[in-house]
Amino acid sequence: MSSWVDYYRILNVAPDNSIEVIRKAYQRLLLRHHPDKAALVNGLQADSSAAAATASPAPGATALEPDTMMMMTGVTRAPADPSTSDTSVFLLIQEAWETLRDAQLRAVYDAQRSNAYLSLVAAVNEDLVLEDWDFDDGEGCYIYPCRCSGEFVATPRNFAGRVELFGCTNCSLAVRMVYPSTESTVEDDGAA
Q1: What CATH class does 123-186 carry?
Q2: pTM confidence score
Q3: SMART domains, from UniProt (predicted)?
C-alpha cells in the first residue's frame, strides 16, 4: 500500500474504540471541516476553547502519540492538518468514517493495517500454503507451530480476506501466507 492512510489517526481515535466513540469523533471533525461550515468554523477558531477542543481526542477515545502511531501502523502519509478546512481534509474524514463504520470494511481494513505493521517490524520466518496449517475444530481457527514453541493463529476470515502476514503469539517472527494466483489456476486448468 504505497499511500497508506491511517483512518484511526485521521479521526483521532484508537483502533479499539467503539463505533459510538468513532462516530462522535467523525461528527465533531465533520462539523469542523465540512466545506459548507468553513466560514463559521474559521470564525470560531479565534476562540481558544474551540481550538483546544479540536486538539483533544473524542470523548472516551484513547489518544495516541502521532509518532508512535506512524511507527505502529506503517503510515506513510500523515493525517490531515486539523486546522485546515479544505475539501481534501473533508474527503479524508469522510473516507475514514465510511470504512470504519461498516463492520466488514473495518475488519478488512484492520487486517490490512496489521499487515502493514507486521511488514515493518516482523521477520518473516517462512512462506506457507493453506495445507501447512492445522485446523483446530474446538477453536475454529488454523494453527501453525513456531520454532519458539509459540504458534501462528489464523481464522478462515483471515484467509478469505487474503491476509498475508501472521505474527507469532510468543515471539517477533511472522509467517507469510502464499495464496494461489487466480490467473495461474485458470491457466493450469486450461492446460490440463
Answers
A1: alpha beta
A2: 0.50
A3: DnaJ
